[in-house]
Amino acid sequence: MAAYEFTVTVRTQYLPEQSDPSRSNYVFTYAITIKNTGTVGAQLISRHWVITDANNHIDEVRGLGVVGHQPLLQPGEQFEYTSGTQMATPQGSMTGEYFCVAEDGHQFETKIPEFVLSLPRTLH
């Protein structure tokens, strides 16, 4: 039985040198690791992000691939990339999904678990 599964892990970082709190501009990077934990090779085709700041302002981002790539991952292979976002508040969160197509034509979504973007030492 074929299993279609990518596993996503995330690391985040606040970039104070690119941020300007006096202008309500906070910049964060996130490093994503996508691993094919299924049994069939599959390609990441597109992405959908939901970015929510502390004021509940939501930005949605859709697009092909990730950082200009549409990686084809065989079982056990992984792809890593770093990207970033800016928000008007010092805290927020991101979640979303990747849309994938397996080598046998099966289409599936991989959920990106929600993660928090926050200045260091601001969560109590």
From TrEMBL:
Annotated ApaG domain ranges read 1-124
- Name the domain of life: Bacteria
Q: Name one Pfam family in it.
A: DUF525
InterPro entries in the record: ApaG_domain (IPR007474), ApaG_sf (IPR036767), Uncharacterised_ApaG (IPR023065)
HAMAP family per UniProt: ApaG
UniProt-recorded name of the protein: Protein ApaG
Question: What phylogenetic lineage does the species belong to?
Answer: Bacteria, Pseudomonadati, Pseudomonadota, Betaproteobacteria, Burkholderiales
